[in-house]
Predict the 3D structure of the following.
Amino acid sequence: MLELRHINKYFKRGDDEQHVLKDISLTINDGEFVSIMGHSGSGKSTLLNIIGLLDREFSGDYVLNGLDTHELSKKKFTKFRNENVGWVFQNFKLIQNMTIADNVGLPLRYQGKSNKEIKQTVDRVLDEVGILDKADAFPKLLSGGQQQRVAIARAIVTSPNIVIADEPTGALDSSTTIEIMNVFKQLNAQGTTLIIVTHDASVGEQAHRMIKILDGQVMGADYEI
Ligand SMILES: Nc1ncnc2c1ncn2[C@@H]1O[C@H](COP(=O)(O)OP(=O)(O)OP(=O)(O)O)[C@@H](O)[C@H]1O
């Protein structure tokens, strides 16, 4: 379970401070599929960066799996992120001069796993997202949808309990969007908590719960779909 309590976030703008997240409190339970929607500039990515443990400079409390994230040292915070959260981005963020298998295996390499274990796990997750036959290819030879499958494989290779995706279908056409959403739904059905920021209502509505952000605030009560 993740709990945000009275989160406030400010960015400096010259001499001014911009109040980007305004007293956000919300709880997301294990296994939920939540979408976060709102206009451009409303603070969605800023909120996601906090939830996904990329940003720890905020006021308020963030308790994840019973642990107050403020209590972690910088090094432990990074380790905690790598163990608990898998990230997927709009533009895939694959390393171009590495094969698909090497891209997906990188988080395991950082964890110091053996070559044998890395290969077994990478093959399993590539198979799970339907792209095992591309293991030895390089990213630029793959379509956008295939590259996003690779990015999802990389996000789940460490078996995180939360997968966070920032506009994961933003660079995909509508039929590929359906395919990628099916991959996400399959993941969620296996118990992974899924949190997606999207501008696309057809994507957001597939979640079990939609959280709407307006000007850095959660609009009213978020609701079940
Ligand atoms: N690193 C930063 N430094 C300064 N200001 C920032 C920074 N990141 C975001 N902002 C500002 O915070 C506000 C919210 O940005 P954020 O990216 O969270 O919005 P968003 O809802 O995700 O927008 P979009 O849908 O366009 O991605 C914006 O006014 C933005 O300019």
User: Anything to note?
Assistant: The domain at 30-59+73-224 is CATH 3.40.50.300 (Rossmann fold). The chain has a mean pLDDT of 94.
